[in-house]
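chain below, 195 aa
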Amino acid sequence: MPRPMAAVAELILIAAIALGLAEGVQAAALKPFRIPSASMEPTLTIGQRVLVNRVVYRLHPPARGNIIVFHPPTSLECGVPISPGEACPQGNGHEDSTYFIKRVVGLPGERLSIRGGHPVINGVELVNEPYILPCVGEQGCNLPKTIVIPKGDVFVMGDNRGDSDDSRFWGPVPETWIIGQAFFSYWPLDRIGSP
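prediction:
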């Protein structure tokens, strides 16, 4: 092969390897995600883009306050009958292929109720949530009957507490359905940084 052709072939091979490695890293470790709804406002806005760490929960379980991307249940209705004033204690058990993004507010084994849009964990209301929009008079703002989050599940809520379809309505999320933690916003430019 003449020298110029060999150089072009080598360049194409290097580019193909680089693209393959980039795709492999993205598939294994990082995933870009576009915010589809207003449920995480004011923290994340519609169309904002974040990077999701897909490895972090192989090292340790999710923590309260983490923003996670996960698969929701196939039905966005509670998997068991509930009484008035009760958050959904159990989903339908079937994982959907779509993606949601919400904040972890309750952990496995914790007792949870909702007061004024704030989770009440084991009898203590989480009022230090400067990132939320108030929940005023909306469905799901006050759910005083206590549920227990099942082992291996987390309870998630959107930061826009009055406009978020979340665990209050369709139940806790199995940790095995979690894709990863949103850790960095890269678009738009004026919102670059940690969400």
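Helices lie at 3-28, 56-59, 167-170. The two ends are 52 Å apart (CA to CA).
thats it, cya
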